[in-house]
Amino acid sequence: MFNLANSHRSIRAYTSENVDDELLNELLMTGLRSSSSGNMQTWSVIVTRDEAKKQKLYEAHYEQPMVLQAPLVLTFCSDVFRMREWIRVNESKQSFDDFLGFLTGAVDAVIAAQTICLAAESQGLGICYMGTTWWSADDIIEILGLPKGVFPVTSIVLGHPAEDPPLRDRLPLELLVHQEQYQILPDAEIKAAHAAREESAWARYNANEELREALAEAGITKVTDFYTSEFKYSKELHQRVSEMLVQTLQKQGLWL
Question: Does the pLDDT of residue 256 top 90, yes or no?
Answer without folding.
Answer: no
